[in-house]
Design a protein that fits this description.
The protein is mainly α and about 100 residues long. It is about 55% helix and about 10% strand. Strands 1-2 form a two-stranded parallel sheet. Strand 1, helix 2 and strand 2 form a beta-alpha-beta unit. The relative contact order is 0.20.
Length: about 100
């Protein structure tokens, strides 16, 4: 997820099984902890933790997946471009 930001993604969301419903036992809970930690780091460096989110989406819920994707798209649009991407663009135009 952090590599996606480095490469220029404006926002990233992770979809996982709801707690208690994961075939990987506690993989979703580990992912949730990692997302929370990454959001804290993104906030501390001024990037914005709101650019990252985790959603519980059952595999059979394609409609819910589409809704969450739209939600993140709208959030990214509101937040504006990735600050790393902006710096690269500004650096390219400064030459």
């Amino acid at each position: 997820m952090l590599k996606a930001f480095k490469e220029g993604a404006d926002a990233v969301f992770v979809g996982g099984c709801a707690p208690g419903q994961c075939g990987y036992i506690d993989g979703n809970l580990k992912a949730e902890k990692r997302i929370k930690f990454a959001k804290e780091i993104l906030d501390k460096i001024g990037f914005g933790g709101e650019r990252l989110e985790i959603f519980w989406i059952p595999a059979s819920e394609s409609k819910l997946f589409a809704e969450r994707a739209k939600e993140m798209y709208e959030r990214a649009k509101k937040l504006g471009p990735n600050p790393i991407k902006l710096r690269r663009q500004q650096g390219a135009t400064a030459h």
